[in-house]
Amino acid sequence: MTDDRYPRVIVLLAMSLVTALYVATLTIVNVALPQMQGALSATPDQISWVVTLNLVATAIATPLSGWLVARWGQRQVLIWCVVGFTVTTYLCATATTLEPLLLYRVGQGAFGAPLVPISQSIILNTYRERDERAFAMSVYGMAVVIGPGLAPALGGYMAEEYNWRWIFYLLMPVCGLALLSILVFIRDGVRPDRFKLDWTGFIALSVAVTCLQLLLDRGERLDWFESEAIIMISVVLVLSLYFFVVHSSFHKNPFINPRLFTDRNYAIGLFLVFVYGMLNVTPTVLLPSMLQNLAGYPDSDIGFILAMRSVGMIVAFYVIGKMSAVDPRVGLVVGLVAIALSGVLSALFDTNVTVWQVCWVGIIQGVGCGLMWVPLSVVAFSTLDPKLVPDGSAFFHLIRNYGSSIFIALNVMVIVRTTKVNYSELSEIATPYNQNLTSPVTSGQVDIESLSGLLSLAEEISVQAGMIGYLNSFILYALGALIPIPLLLMLRIKKQAVSV
Questions:
Q1: 3-class DSSP state for residue 282?
Q2: Whether residue 211 sits in one domain with residue 176
Q3: Fewest Cβ atoms closer than 10 Å to its Cβ: which of 150, 341, 418, 453?
Q4: Which of 229, 254, 279 is the last residue of a domain?
Q5: Which H, E and C letters describe 142-209, residue by residue?
């Protein structure tokens, strides 16, 4: 509940700041991933865990939001989550090896998980009509992307001038401001009825989610089912998922309320928000490592590029806020097409790509995500029973975060796998019998007769093989945006959303 002494827009901005606090940890960390990889002596797939484990922890902890609010109230939960988030953020800045950093990032995800669904639930209950919700979600979206948009640019500069630890130190003042906004503007009203949490279902789902993430993260590195560890993880995944489904089917009050899936719009919205999670975060993880390792970009330029993506989102949120009377499916289709276009344009990059080429693609991708988010948020909850909104919001964000972690792991797997294959294929043609290497045109550039020349050639082959790996992942990204478009025809559009 909000404090009636303050205008609704003040509460909207306060909740936007709280949400931005968590979202900023994704974008600000991504800009320093290559530097963190070197400083912590990690491989590319290992350093990606800094993002994916945070998302997995968020996905697992998000459904607990409803139970936490029913037990302690939304104000207390928000306060303690921001405090815990602040502590783990500081610990991330002090980590000296990869293992504790990953542990603290898990803590960040767990404490940050309730912030988004509780904030969204407060906004949905503050703005009840469909037109009002469209306005609120557009303002909410713009406010949320401003912080994450500025964070990479500022974080990239600080990381380049000092070191990667400053990306976490920069968040500390924001943590204090978010805590202050909760203390001043948010009050507890009537709490939801207390309920007994289905711990068995929660643990079973958590184990399944973790095993699937480990399977995708470690599969390529351990040669898939040639590894006993991968076989064991797969067995645990299947058993835990089977147990969760069977247990939820017969339990009186299951961890995930089955009534959520009887609402067609919400069920389709879950699939679409999974796709949104896939498409929204993945480029911010892939681009920094590609630009720094293969194109030689400094951290400050990478931060600027990631910030331009948020410029596109702000423009989209402003436009979609003026289109409340337009069929929401229009925004969803245009958004998905724009995202697919950004993937196709990214697949045309090479090692000489310029800053502005990447920026324009980022703006297009940001516009697509912005156009998609507002109508998706409105339509998914437009026909849902008001009593199910808190649980529905928590599960909605669980699916979004899990879509991000799964697709990041899948893209990293594609990059690692295809890089190996292309390196092998390119190496086979790098021989003295290849006329392209011995022709007068290349004789001054490639010297295969000396050791230094061979080393230079091997390095170039490695760079080009890696670039092909990234281009393959961008093609996968574009396909991920186009495939769900036919599903939009099944959405049921109502003139007015159900009041909550």
A1: helix
A2: no
A3: 453
A4: 254
A5: HHHHHHHHHHHHHHHHHHHHCCCCHHHHCCHHHHHHHHHHHHHHECCCCCCCCCCCCHHHHHHHHHHH
Residues 109/112/118/119 CA torsion (nearest 10 deg): -130
The tokens describing 119, both together, are 């904030």
Q: Which domain holds residue 107?
A: 8-197+255-419+468-490
In this structure, are residues 89 and 168 in contact, taking their beta carbons and an 8 Å threshold? yes
Q: Please check whether residue 170 is in contact with residue 151, taking contact to mean a CB–CB distance below 8 angstroms.
A: yes
**Tokens representing residue 136 in the block:** 């609120």
How far apart are alpha carbons 360 and 261 in whole angstroms? 39
How far is 297 from 314, CA to CA, in rounded Å? 25
Same domain, 259 and 248: no
pLDDT tens for each residue of 442-481: 555 556 666 676 677 777 788 888 899 999 999 999 999 9
Contact 114, 78 (CB under 8 A): yes
> Closest Cα partner for 55 from 254, 244, 274?
274
186 phi, psi to nearest 5 deg: -110, 130
CB proximity list for 34: less than 8 A, separation 6 or greater: 288, 289, 292, 293, 299
pTM confidence score = 0.76
Q: What whole-number distance in Å separates Cα of residue 168 and Cα of residue 165?
A: 6
Return the DSSP state at 499. P
- Say which amino acid occupies 123: I
Indicate the range of 204-213, 248-257, 387-396 predicted with least confidence: 387-396
The number of domains in the chain is: 2
Report the residue count for the chain. 500
